[in-house]
Every structure is written in structure tokens, then in C-alpha cells.
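Title: Comparing notes on inverse folding

I've been comparing how different people in this forum approach sequence design from structure. To keep things fair, I'm posting one structure and asking everyone to reply with a full sequence. Here's the target:
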């Protein structure tokens, strides 16, 4: 018999998987009538809920220091918030570890492991191979959030960044843009590199030979963004929303209007999108659902006899259209 998933229940009732998840977890945001319908259908279909082992579980959450770049960081911190809520709901504890140097992080992890019986480790964002190799030695279930590597027998939940980059470039091309610049340091992470190569694939698909690239994470720099182009791009794809917000400032200082003169699009769909003027179009995912599925993946890993083993969930992104992209006439 096919296993019943959140998506199965959501499709039957024509609601989102997030709504189903909230109803099953007892979270707010779902009307009593709808919650009752969801619970009834879940029981009818034989949905298997994760065991609620209150107070028995302890997890470690590791994140690279660079990903906590400023008070405006709204991607990994939001994921952590929802992941911690999942843990709290069953009485589990999530120990927060910020990775700076390899030796300090390993010492920190070993200290926690000596003092507490840890059931599993979450890793948010890409970290270096040397740390992954050390974590593998702990022989604990590991769930990696937002990156994938076939070199380590962990569990992964991530997005197809190559397809995401392709999709955004194709979206701009179909709106008339042909001089499109990608903004992001492709050596910083696989996610940025994959988005860039997806962007190149779209240009090639539509026979656009000119590819423009600002190979820097401008949100991490205090220097001015160099916009030295023989001919100004008509659109920019920024590797994250924060980079887009920095680009907004530099474009406006140089007299460019968004989107009348230049279109801008971002990744991650963070809250900053709605406070920018004009609001930023962005490609992102539901971070609450991402955290919920990461936690479910961890619970499954804990229940396995073999704690190591390659398992992965690939998530889809959605385009959140706002006001930062304009159509371009065919002759421009």
C-alpha cells in the first residue's frame, strides 16, 4: 500500500501542505472546521505520524558564520526558527553551533557530545569538506539543509538550483530581456554556482551569446558595486534578496529607476522583498515547510538501524512576482 503523505491529504482537500502540517501539529493558522476535516481524512487514509517522544531527543544545528551575515539575514535564521519549533513541539532540544574555524567547531561539537546524548545533527547551508568528514566520524544521523553532496552518506533536503537559475533567466528572456547580468560569487557555494550555470544554459537555449557577470557577493562588501558595462544590462539576477537590495541602492545612486530602466530579480523570497521600493520579484520556497520536512527526514533517519545512508528530498521553488521586473519591447 502506498504511503500517505502530507501532499496526499493536501491534494484531496485542495489545501497547501503547510496547512495540513499545521493542522496535524496543532499549530495556529487553521480554522477549527478545516482542522477537523484534515484530521479526519488523515485517520481515514491511515496517515502515520512521527512518534512524539517528549524530552528524549537532542539535536545539533550547525550553520556557517558567513551565512549569518547581518541582522537583515532572513533565510537560514527563519529556517532555524521553524526547525526549533518542530523540536519544541515534541520536547526536544536544538543546540545551536555557529561554525567559524574547523578546530573550534570540532571542539565545540565534541564538548556537546560528551555532555549530552545527541540523536542527530542538522547542517544549514554548505560547509567545507573537512568539517563534513569530521561529522561523518560521529556516526550520527545527519540532515543537510539547502545543499547536496554525493560524497557523504547523509540525508539531504535541497532545491535544484541549476533549474532555478535557468527558470529565472528564461522568465526574463520571455519578458523581452536579452542583456541579463548575473550577480553572485560562483566560488562561494555550489548553490550560487548552480544558479549561474542554469542562467548560462537559458542564454544558450535562446541563442543569446552575451553573458554578463558580477562575480561577487555584493551584500558582503563595503565597496561600491562596479557597474562598468559597455552597454547597461536591462535586467539583473541576484543570487539572493540581500544582494538585490544592495544593488537597488547602487542603481538608484547612479540614476537608474527600477523597473523603468533596469529590472531586478532575486532568490529566497525573504521578508526584505516586500519592504524594498519597488517590491522585489523573487524565487523562493516555503521555509516553514522546508523545516518541517527536514525534521521529518531526521526522525526517519533516527528510526533506521543504519544511521548513515544517502537519502534526499528535492524541493520546488515558486516565483513570487512583485514590481521589480518590467516587460521590454522586442527591439530593445
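Reply #1:
Here's my take.
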Amino acid at each position: 500500500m502506498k504511503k500517505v503523505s502530507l501532499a496526499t491529504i493536501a491534494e484531496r482537500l485542495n489545501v497547501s501542505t503547510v496547512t495540513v502540517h499545521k493542522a496535524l501539529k496543532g499549530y495556529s493558522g487553521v480554522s477549527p472546521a478545516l482542522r477537523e476535516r484534515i484530521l479526519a481524512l488523515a485517520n481515514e487514509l491511515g496517515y502515520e505520524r512521527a512518534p512524539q517522544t517528549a524530552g528524549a531527543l537532542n539535536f545539533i544545528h550547525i550553520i556557517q558564520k558567513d551565512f549569518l551575515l547581518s541582522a537583515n539575514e532572513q533565510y537560514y535564521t527563519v529556517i532555524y526558527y521553524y526547525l526549533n519549533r518542530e523540536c519544541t513541539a515534541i520536547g526536544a532540544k536544538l543546540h545551536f553551533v555557529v561554525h567559524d574555524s574547523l578546530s573550534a567547531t570540532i571542539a565545540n561539537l565534541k564538548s556537546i557530545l560528551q555532555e549530552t546524548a545527541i540523536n542527530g545533527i542538522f547542517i544549514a547551508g554548505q560547509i567545507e569538506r573537512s568539517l563534513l568528514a569530521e561529522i561523518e566520524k560521529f556516526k550520527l544521523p545527519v540532515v543537510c539543509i539547502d545543499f547536496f553532496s554525493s560524497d557523504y552518506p547523509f540525508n539531504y533536503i535541497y532545491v535544484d538550483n541549476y533549474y532555478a537559475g535557468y527558470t529565472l533567466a528564461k522568465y526574463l528572456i520571455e519578458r523581452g530581456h536579452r542583456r541579463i547580468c548575473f550577480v553572485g560569487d560562483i566560488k562561494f557555494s555550489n548553490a550560487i554556482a548552480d544558479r549561474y550555470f542554469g542562467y548560462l544554459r537559458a542564454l544558450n537555449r535562446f541563442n543569446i551569446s552575451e553573458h554578463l557577470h558580477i562575480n561577487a557577493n555584493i551584500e558582503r562588501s563595503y565597496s561600491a558595486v562596479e557597474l562598468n558595462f559597455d552597454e547597461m544590462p536591462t535586467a539583473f539576477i541576484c543570487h539572493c534578496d540581500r544582494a538585490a537590495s544592495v544593488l537597488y541602492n547602487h542603481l538608484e545612486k547612479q540614476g537608474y529607476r527600477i523597473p523603468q530602466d533596469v529590472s531586478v530579480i532575486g532568490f529566497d523570497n525573504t521578508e526584505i522583498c516586500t519592504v524594498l521600493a519597488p517590491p522585489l520579484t523573487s524565487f523562493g520556497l516555503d521555509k516553514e515547510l522546508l523545516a518541517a520536512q527536514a525534521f521529518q527526514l531526521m526522525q526517519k533517519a533516527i528510526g533506521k538501524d543504519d544511521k548513515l545512508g544517502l537519502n534526499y528530498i528535492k524541493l520546488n521553488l515558486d516565483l513570487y512576482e512583485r514590481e521589480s521586473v518590467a516587460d521590454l519591447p522586442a527591439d530593445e
